Amino acid sequence: MSVKLPVSPIQHVKRVWEKIAPLALADHSWDNVGIMIESPVPNQQHKQVLLTIDLTTAVCNEALALPSCSVVVSYHPPIFRGLKSMTLSDPLQASLLKLAARGISVFSPHTSLDATPKGINTWLVEPFKPYASSSLPIVPSEGAEVEGAGMGKIVQLKEKLSVSQIVSMVKQHLSLEFVQLSVPDEERPIESIAVCAGSGGSMFKGVKADLLFTGEMSHHEVLAAKAAGTAVILANHTNTERPYLTKVLQGWLQKELNDAEEGAEGNWEVVVSQTDADPLRTV
């Protein structure tokens, strides 16, 4: 009779993640997704997962202080390009080394979570759904066996909205007091909205929409949009991503971890970082 070996916490998270946002959906032409670092000393009894947008020193310390953290899911990959060394002199590398030594592994989903049908971009367009005739990916995922998957969203409205109405919707949805706005014509009604979590400048190239909504764009990208008669709403990069962790991903991931066969014992807990924050603030 074969003996079923226990699955390490990071491998359990990786398997479950395929039900949420298959890594095949990520833009592998430039992105880095999956296991960033796998601890050689995992504790099978530790079933806490910490969600964060960025793996900062503060988030690392938060994970180390948790009683049974085994995995940090960092939306942005802390390892993006090839490393020639891993030393304590670099704050990010030091965080990875400290976590691994404590039995904590790091997993990054990034653009797989952007492209999945119930991902960040789908959540970003929720305020517009009552007014929408269609909501489709800007760039549909090719070859992926997931219906509706793709990067960005283009929303066609069946009911015209004013820029001020859309600004109010965005602020309420993201719980923000301020956003940045570029409007070539205050009176022009909006019939289409292009949406991209994070940095949408490259995603919007060639896209025809009355309004672009993203976290950040370059100065010249905004100027070009305005010259073309297109309005722009910028909310700051991670402000378009961070609320999703609490409002959608936390409960979803926890349920999948506990429902999966490898998590039969249950008791998995997913928590959202309290120290993760946008590095910029409006003063």
Automatic annotation (TrEMBL):
The keyword Signal does not apply. Keywords: Metal-binding. GO terms for cellular component: mitochondrion. This is GTP cyclohydrolase 1 type 2/Nif3. Belongs to the GTP cyclohydrolase I type 2/NIF3 family. The keyword Lipoprotein does not apply. A divalent metal cation binds at residues 76, 114, 237, 241. One of its GO terms (molecular function) is metal ion binding.
